[in-house]
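Notes from hallway chat w/ T.B., transcribed later so I don't forget. T.B. wanted the structure written out for a chain they're using in a teaching module, and asked if we could keep both sequence and structure tokens in one place. Agreed to drop them here.
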Amino acid sequence: MDLQHILSEVKALAVEAGTFIAEQRNTFDASRVELKQSHDYVSYVDKGCEQMIVKRLKEILPEAGFITEEKTVEQVDEKTNYFWVVDPLDGTTNFIHNLAPYCVCIALRSKAELLIGVVYEVTCNELYSAAKGQGAFLNGKPIHVSSLTDFDQALVMIGYPYNADAWRPFCLNLTGQLYGHCASIRSSGSAEAELCYVAAGKIDVYVESFIQPWDVAAGACILLEAGGRISDYEGGDTLWESGRQVMATNGWLHERMLQEMQKAKP
């Protein structure tokens, strides 16, 4: 499998999909937004973008299956050796409110590992990409995680899940615990963007609960190729299957952040 050739085609597709999203934002009809669950939205733009992406990915690698957020295509079965993991519009709430960031996210993986990750941040025209063993890039230039080792200087991003009742105690504990003991705390509203920000050294730590494989696959590939570390809250790698807990760091701060996560448990 020629990963570089596939990556080149996926990068072009991500930019094309991002252009579609940007054009739709100019004439966006908020009255057509649907509610998937409390405070979790989907728009006709998400669905239309996913259909466009899926059609092209079938041409790029016909034998691959799919795991997609909006389920516009039949999802992968156990017999599939390769599959695309697609979030056509990560950060839908941001998009609805015309607030950055929001991204097109496409990953290719086998049953064992991530092979390709592409995240296109539409509002900033930032194209993050990586292929297994070949490094990570932002708009064609190599990127690497930060070298920060002093947690007191770390910039941390925390994602706040939609199912607030289940995760409120943990999120409040963690926020209160870190506030005043790191450089600052932020939340962007796009999981994949935040993973890429760690990969590019823009931030040092990112954590979020109750997210899905399509929220993490592309960004995780990019982060790992940029020298970062990603795990669940116990330090394990089961996040690839569940996506329920994601903690990403520059690597140097990972063990310290694992300690903070344990202390934050209700």
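Follow-up for T.B.: The first strand starts at residue 34 and ends at 37. Might be a good example for the class.
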